[in-house]
């Protein structure tokens, strides 16, 4: 198995290539992003400029930004950060029926202590259940796509209804990296197709769907912009955890994104056991390049299981029961052929074949160049069908 000389990206990652020094193209992408969005003095200045813009846009309004919260460390610390800089955020949480009790309590503790209003958007459970089951029946790798798309859609939906122009999200490419499109790409067109083909016909009345048209309208007409503060600021996850525990009695929930139990099942059970995919290779590699951990530590972590077999089986049983899947139904899903992201229709080619023409639009939507756009240029992003 060939492994990147600088990180722990390896040959199991689709589209990976290595140069004569054993350095992968994923590593080069990570280095480019770090160079494009420097921290330190420049990053601090860029962030403070955005703070001024947000305060000006929110003048005479109740809120000047939205912070998406999950109860995880990244989003919890983001509330703390926004308060530190004198911003008046509205915290927005998506409830898909799988939030852990620890995550719910974390959100309550932080928002209560800081006096930040919280809006929880609840999707009708029959709708999200039908969508998650449909993605599993479709044999998709990243079955938590309906949640990911709904989180983004909810942020924009609330921003439009409240007249808020800035959305803050806790994404951090220095700790998360860039997942290959073959593992996680998703859009509304593909979700609708999979739901029609594999769902039970439950109409999506409360599920928030961010179509390409709605996204463009939100950015061009309503002036809503997506901001990632950790692109600019010196953020260290472990330090943030310690501070949140001390100041807010925040509790740790285990692994990366394990604050949501379906996400935990997707990352720690479904992907590695059915597809042989370990997303930690991407996350840990990014952390090595940002010097949060050593390469040796990352390699050692990959040798360890996501959790004990007993814990993973309990998680699987919980998800199976909550989705109303019998043992026979789950077994049929589990033994069915694994599919690829691009086996089903999507907007991928339409969007990324038009990236150059869409650059003026991207500047309206984001305060940064999305990593997927940079990846499209560097990783030869042509989707492959099976």
UniProtKB/TrEMBL annotation:
Query: What InterPro entries is this protein classified in?
Result: Asn_synthase, N-acetyl_sugar_amidoTrfase, Rossmann-like_a/b/a_fold
Domain Asparagine synthetase, chain residue ranges per copy: 69-170
Q: Name one Pfam family in it.
A: Asn_synthase
Looking up Gene3D superfamilies in the UniProt record yields: HUPs (3.40.50.620)
Q: Specify the signal sequence span.
A: none
The protein's matches in NCBIfam families, at most eight in alphabetical order, are given as: WbuX
| Protein name per Swiss-Prot or TrEMBL | N-acetyl sugar amidotransferase
- Recorded source organism is Larkinella bovis
């Amino acid at each position: 198995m060939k492994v990147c000389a600088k990180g722990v990206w390896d040959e199991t990652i689709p589209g990976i290539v290595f140069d004569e020094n054993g350095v992968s193209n994923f590593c080069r992408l990570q280095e480019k992003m770090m160079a494009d969005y420097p921290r330190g003095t420049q990053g601090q200045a860029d962030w403070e400029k955005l703070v001024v813009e947000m305060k000006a846009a929110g003048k005479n309004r109740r809120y000047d930004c939205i912070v998406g919260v999950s109860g995880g460390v990244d989003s919890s610390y983001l509330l703390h950060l926004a308060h530190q800089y004198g911003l008046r955020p509205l915290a927005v949480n998506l409830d898909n029926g799988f939030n852990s009790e620890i995550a719910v309590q974390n959100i309550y503790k932080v928002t209560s202590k800081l006096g930040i209003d919280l809006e929880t958007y609840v999707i009708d459970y029959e709708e999200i259940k039908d969508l998650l089951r449909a993605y599993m029946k479709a044999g998709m790798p990243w079955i938590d796509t309906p949640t990911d798309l709904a989180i983004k859609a909810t942020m924009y939906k609330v921003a439009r209804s409240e007249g808020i122009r800035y959305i803050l999200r806790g994404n951090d490419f220095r700790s998360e990296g860039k997942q290959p499109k073959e593992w996680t790409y998703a859009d509304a067109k593909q979700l609708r197709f999979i739901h029609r083909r594999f769902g039970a016909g439950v109409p999506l009345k409360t599920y928030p769907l961010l179509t390409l048209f709605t996204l463009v309208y939100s950015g061009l007409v309503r002036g809503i912009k997506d901001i990632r503060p950790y692109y600019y600021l010196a953020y260290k996850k472990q330090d943030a955890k310690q501070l949140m525990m001390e100041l807010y009695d925040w509790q740790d929930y285990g692994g990366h994104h394990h604050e949501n139990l379906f996400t935990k099942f997707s990352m720690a059970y479904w992907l590695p056991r059915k597809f042989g995919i370990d997303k930690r290779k991407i996350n840990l590699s990014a952390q090595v390049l940002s010097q949060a951990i050593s390469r040796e530590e990352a390699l050692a972590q990959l040798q360890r299981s996501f959790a004990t077999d007993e814990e993973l089986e309990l998680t699987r049983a919980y998800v199976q029961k909550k989705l109303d899947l019998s043992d026979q139904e789950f077994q049929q899903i589990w033994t069915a052929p694994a599919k690829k992201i691009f086996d089903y229709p999507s907007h991928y080619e339409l969007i990324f074949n038009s990236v150059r023409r869409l650059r003026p639009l991207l500047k309206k939507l984001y305060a940064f160049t999305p990593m997927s756009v940079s990846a499209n240029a560097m990783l030869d992003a042509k989707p492959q069908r099976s």
